[in-house]
Amino acid sequence: MSETLNLNEKYEIDNEDTHHMINVMRFRVDDAFEMIDGTTTGFVCRITGIEGRKVAFLTEQVLDSNTESPVGTTIICPLLKGEKFEWMLQKSTELGAVRFIIYEADRSIVKLDDKKRGKRLARFQKVIREASEQSRRFSIPEIHFEGRLKNVDFSDYDSAFIAFEGYAGQKAVSFKNLGGVETGKKIAFIFGPEGGLTEDEVEADASFTPLSLGPRILRAETAPLYFLAAVSSLHE
């Protein structure tokens, strides 16, 4: 819900979520549900009335908001074939990513068509929102398109790690000595498409830190999950 809610007050909503609540989840008067307001505060709410698609409810309890990762990780990613990209967005959201930036890699197979860009970004944002709700996150990550990798501004990050298959099994920064990843830091993780990154892309920004994801080559959609899980294991 975009507006700010207050405890022990009554409100009404009428949107696609209420349709899902009434017709799919079969909520009825006096049933409880959870809602996040425009300030990312979570509430336990109780339904006080249903009229058509309109749901009236009372906010009864403020939820514990300690569900976010202590490290703010932005995933910088190309589009992937088939359903892989949406699956990656969903799982990365569940694992704590705070933002997604799409770029078009030199070897990208899937392109973000200008005419369909708005519609596809809206679809991706919906996938992220639903994953946030499912995993009880109070903050919904945003997704943006920045064109080429060189267009992304990395000055706002404390560290920017880039995964490159050329580093698999070779000497590069590993998760055993990621001293730059500390609680409260803002970091970026960049990975390439199915065809991999070019050396020019790997060297596109002087701030990039090469990162080894272990001795095995991971699929493109697996790489960010490996990274996020490792960050989570270090800090949560």
UniProtKB/TrEMBL annotation:
<keyword id="KW-0489">Methyltransferase</keyword>
<dbReference type="InterPro" id="IPR015947">
    <property type="entry name" value="PUA-like_sf"/>
</dbReference>
<protein>
    <recommendedName>
        <fullName>Ribosomal RNA small subunit methyltransferase E</fullName>
        <ecNumber>2.1.1.193</ecNumber>
    </recommendedName>
</protein>
<dbReference type="InterPro" id="IPR029028">
    <property type="entry name" value="Alpha/beta_knot_MTases"/>
</dbReference>
<dbReference type="InterPro" id="IPR046886">
    <property type="entry name" value="RsmE_MTase_dom"/>
</dbReference>
<keyword id="KW-0949">S-adenosyl-L-methionine</keyword>
<keyword id="KW-0808">Transferase</keyword>
<comment type="function">
    <text>Specifically methylates the N3 position of the uracil ring of uridine 1498 (m3U1498) in 16S rRNA. Acts on the fully assembled 30S ribosomal subunit.</text>
</comment>
<dbReference type="InterPro" id="IPR029026">
    <property type="entry name" value="tRNA_m1G_MTases_N"/>
</dbReference>
<dbReference type="Pfam" id="PF20260">
    <property type="entry name" value="PUA_4"/>
</dbReference>
<keyword id="KW-0963">Cytoplasm</keyword>
<keyword id="KW-0698">rRNA processing</keyword>
<dbReference type="InterPro" id="IPR046887">
    <property type="entry name" value="RsmE_PUA-like"/>
</dbReference>
<dbReference type="InterPro" id="IPR006700">
    <property type="entry name" value="RsmE"/>
</dbReference>
<dbReference type="GO" id="GO:0005737">
    <property type="term" value="C:cytoplasm"/>
</dbReference>
<dbReference type="GO" id="GO:0070475">
    <property type="term" value="P:rRNA base methylation"/>
</dbReference>
<dbReference type="GO" id="GO:0070042">
    <property type="term" value="F:rRNA (uridine-N3-)-methyltransferase activity"/>
</dbReference>
<feature type="domain" description="Ribosomal RNA small subunit methyltransferase E methyltransferase">
    <location>
        <begin position="68"/>
        <end position="231"/>
    </location>
</feature>
<dbReference type="Pfam" id="PF04452">
    <property type="entry name" value="Methyltrans_RNA"/>
</dbReference>
<feature type="domain" description="Ribosomal RNA small subunit methyltransferase E PUA-like">
    <location>
        <begin position="13"/>
        <end position="55"/>
    </location>
</feature>
<comment type="similarity">
    <text>Belongs to the RNA methyltransferase RsmE family.</text>
</comment>
